[in-house]
UniProtKB/TrEMBL annotation:
SUPFAM superfamilies: E set domains. Residues 1-18 form the signal peptide. InterPro entries: Ig_E-set, Rho_GDI, RhoGDI_dom_sf. Keywords: Cytoplasm, Signal. Residues 45-68 are annotated as: Disordered. Belongs to the Rho GDI family. One of its GO terms (cellular component) is membrane. This is Rho GDP-dissociation inhibitor 3.
Length: 239
């Protein structure tokens, strides 16, 4: 009987050990996946490719925390006694003295461009009076294919997870909503340009009419760099 009891005890211990190992393996796999996603975020370069819009939601979710934000000058001043590292960082990050600072917010959204595939672009200058864009809709052809372009600058410190949101309304009713992951950028004097994938305007009798768009430009830290409204009118042809 004692021998049988020992065998049963050993079998139970084996099961417990096997379960523990499986749980540890699962946790290790989750940790590796976290690290892979985290490194992917860090390696994301400037000027990302256009990605499909996410419809019907304003919040993009992530399964890991974004990298801690650090300004360009702090990055350059770290490990100042390591000559080789200093030279590497200068080549990679540039110098804060070389980056134009126009004042205001760290990220400056200069313009939104409505860019039809087969027609001239409409540029909304976002550095002046924004109220004019809601009052004065521009005309677009029904069913036309187009992109949205964003022209902006990052001035003083790198920014993580820039995003563009828009909600489209007709006669006070929201008819569409989308967001775009614009990406992470380092400071530089030159302007960055992001463009969305190709989309298509509504068409037909029900699609023609006036639309108002509520737009917002923000980042992972919930900083809102600009909010504004603009409008367009869908007609049979360009006017």
């Amino acid at each position: 009987m004692k021998g049988h009891a020992c065998v049963i005890l050993l079998m139970c211990l084996s099961c417990v050990c096997a379960t523990a190992l499986q749980e540890k393996s699962a946790k290790d796999e989750l940790l590796l996946e976290y690290l892979r996603q985290y490194m992917t975020e860090l390696k994301r370069g400037d000027e990302p490719k256009a990605v499909p819009a996410q419809r019907g939601t304003e919040e993009l979710t992530r399964d890991y925390p974004p990298p801690k934000q650090m300004d360009l000058q702090t990055l350059q001043e770290r490990d100042a006694d390591d000559e080789s590292l200093v030279k590497y960082k200068e080549a990679l990050l540039g110098s804060t003295a070389d980056v134009l600072d126009e004042g205001g917010q760290n990220v400056l959204l200069k313009a939104l461009v409505f860019a039809p595939v087969d027609h001239e672009e409409t540029v909304l200058d976002l550095t002046g009076d924004l109220s004019q864009f809601k009052r004065n809709p521009f005309v677009v052809k029904e069913g036309a294919k187009y992109r949205i372009k964003l022209i902006f600058r990052v001035q003083r410190e790198g920014v993580s997870g820039l995003r563009y949101f828009e909600a489209v309304y007709r006669k006070g009713i929201r008819v569409d909503k989308a967001n775009f992951m614009v990406g992470s950028y380092r400071p530089k004097t030159e302007e960055h340009i992001f463009q969305s994938p190709v989309d298509e305007l509504p068409a037909g009798l029900l699609g023609r009419g006036d639309y108002i768009v509520k737009s917002k430009f923000t980042d992972d830290d919930k900083n809102i760099y600009l909010e504004w409204e603009w409008s367009f009118s869908v007609k049979r042809d360009w006017e």
